[in-house]
Amino acid sequence: MFGWMGKYLRVNLSEGKITEVPLDEQWAKTWFGGSGFGARLLYDEVPPDIDEFDERNKLYFFTGPLSGGLPCSSRFTVVFKSPVSHGYGEASSGGYFAIEMKRAGYDGIVIEGKSKKPVYLWVKDAEKELRDASHLWGQGTFKAQEMIQEEVGGKARVLCIGPAGEKKSKLANILNDEARALGRGGSGAVMGSKNFKAIAVRGTGEIQWADPNAVKEQIKKVSQWIIPKGTPSTIGPILSIGMQRYGTEYMMDSMKPLGDIPIKNWQLGEWEGTTKIGGGEMARTILKKGTGCYGCVIRCGRWIEMEEPYPYEGPGPEYETCVTFGSLQLIDDLKAISWANYLCNDYGVDTISTGSTIAWATEALEKGIIKKGDIDGIELKWGNAEAMLQITEKIVKREGKAGELLADGSQAAADKLGKGHEFLTTVKGLEAPGHDPRAFYVMGVEYATAHRGACHVTGYACISDLGILNPGAGLTKRTGRFDPARKGEIAGIVQDLFALLGSTVVCFFGATPMTTKVFLDAFKNCCGWPIDELTLNITVDRLYNLKWAYNVRCGMRDKDNKLPPRLLTPTKEGGQKGKVPPMDQMMQEYYAWRGWTEDAIPTKDRLMLIGLPDVAKDLWGE
Fold this sequence. Notes:
The protein is an alpha+beta fold and about 625 residues long. It folds into three domains: about 5-200, 4-Layer Sandwich (Aldehyde Ferredoxin Oxidoreductase,  A, domain 1), CATH 3.60.9; about 235-420, Aldehyde Ferredoxin Oxidoreductase Protein, subunit A, domain 2, CATH 1.10.569; about 440-510 and about 530-620, Aldehyde Ferredoxin Oxidoreductase Protein, subunit A, domain 3 (Orthogonal Bundle), CATH 1.10.599.10. The protein is globular and about 60 Å long.
C-alpha cells in the first residue's frame, strides 16, 4: 500500500496484549483514515448504551493517508464515546506525533480494556511494550513527556494525560508535543479511566508514496498557495499570512468589527478590552517566536516569554483560549490569560470548556445561583484575573468545593445545582467555542448539528461568508452572513469538507486554498488511487452520516440539535447588534439537504445510497 502504512496496533490493557492488525485496502478506501477509521470502528465495537468510563469504551488514534504528503498534514485524530455528550466523541491534534507513528510503521493505535495499574505504551518501529507508569501518575503533562523521553532515549514523540484526566474530569484532554491538544469532549477522562497515562512513539522508517516526485512537487506548489509571494489576492492566503504573523490570535483583531467575539458570557457584542489580548498585543509584548507542526508553512503556534508575576517560557495561548479566559470573563490581562493557559495544558484540560465554565460560574455567582461558599470563598467577578486563576487551579486539580462543582463543565454544574441553565452556552453538553452564530447565521446550524456538540472544527461553516470558496464542493460564491438562504446546505457542505480533512488528516488552516482537485491529485500521487470527485463526495457524506448515526443509536434526535437561549438573545451593540439566526428555517433546509427526517434520523434511502446498509438496518430494521 502507498500512503497508508498497511497496519495498526490494538492494545488490550486488560490482558496486557499488543496485536498488529493488517489494514484491508478496500476498507481503507471506504473510510480514508483518521476520524473515518475511528468512527467506523467505534460504531462497530462500542455499544451505544454503555457508561463512558466502562472499560468497553475505546480510544481510536489514527493518522491519514495524506499525512506528510501535503503541507500542514501532520494531524491525527482520536475517536471515543464522549462522557460530555454521551455520544460520538472526536478530537484532533497537530505536532509531530502523527508522522512519527507512520514512520514507526502504523496508521493508528487502538486502546481497549483497562489496566489494573497505571501504564504507558512504548513503540519503536516493530518493538512495542506496555510499561509501568506508577511513577508518572500525578505528573503534569510537561513533566510526564520529559520523563518518558528520558526513559526511552529522548527522541520519541509523546502524548499523555495530566492529573485532570487521571481524576476523570470531563474537561480533560490529551496533550502531545508539549501543548498540542486533542481537546474537547473528555478524551483525557476516558484515557484516565483506563489507568493509561501515555503513548510514546519513535519511528525510523519512511512513508511510501506512489509517486514521490509528484508528492514533492505538490507540497511545493500548495505551500506557495498557502503563503504566496507578494500580495495575496484571495481571503485564504490573507488569513494564512495573518496567522503566520500573529497566530490564531489574529482573529481577535480581525473579527472584532464583525461582532464574532463572544463577550461577558455571550451577553455583550463589543468590549474595548479585546485589543489588549489580541495577536498584535501579544507580538508587541510577550511573543518570542512562532512555532509550527511538521511540514507547516504557516507556523501559527506562539512561543512566549513572561517575567513577573508569572515567570514562564513556553507555548502561549491561542485565540479560543483568549476568548474564554479573556473576553468571556472581561479580563484584559494577557499575562494572566497565558498563565491560565499553562495551567490548563499542564494539568490536561480543554481551555474552551474550562474558561467557559468559569464565565458561567461568574454569572451564576452574580445572580445568586451559587454562593461564595460553593466555590471556596473565591471573589469571582467580571475582570478579576486573580480570582480567575484561583478558580482555574481548583478546577484543574479537582480540588475543594469549586473543583468538585466545576471540574466536569458548566452543564454538569447546572444539572447538579438544578438551576443556572438559562445562561449555559452548551449544545449536547459541550460549551460553544469563540465564534458567534449571531454574527454568522450559518454557524448556528453548525453548532446545533455538530456531532460532538457545539463546535467550530466539525465545520467552520462561515468560510463562504468570508469568501473562502470551493466550487467543486458547491461553495461557488460569497454569501451574506445575515442572509439565511442556503445556510442549511452550506453548513452541510462545509461539514463534509471537514470530514474529508479529519479523515485524510489535513489542517484546516493550511487547507483554505485547497480545492477538491488538490485532494483528488493528492490521493493519486500519495496512494496511487485515481479517485473521482463523485466517490470523494459520497465518501465524506458517508463519514458524516455514520458519526451522526452513532448519536442516533445513543438516543439523540432533533431535540438535541438546539442552540441554548443565550446564543439566541440579541446584543445591543457590536457588529451583530440585534441579530438572531432564524434557526427553524435553516434547520429544515439542513435536514432536507442531508436526507434526514425532521427528527434528525438519516433516512433509509439516504443511508443505502451512500453505502451504509448495515446502519440503515440498525436505524430502520429490515
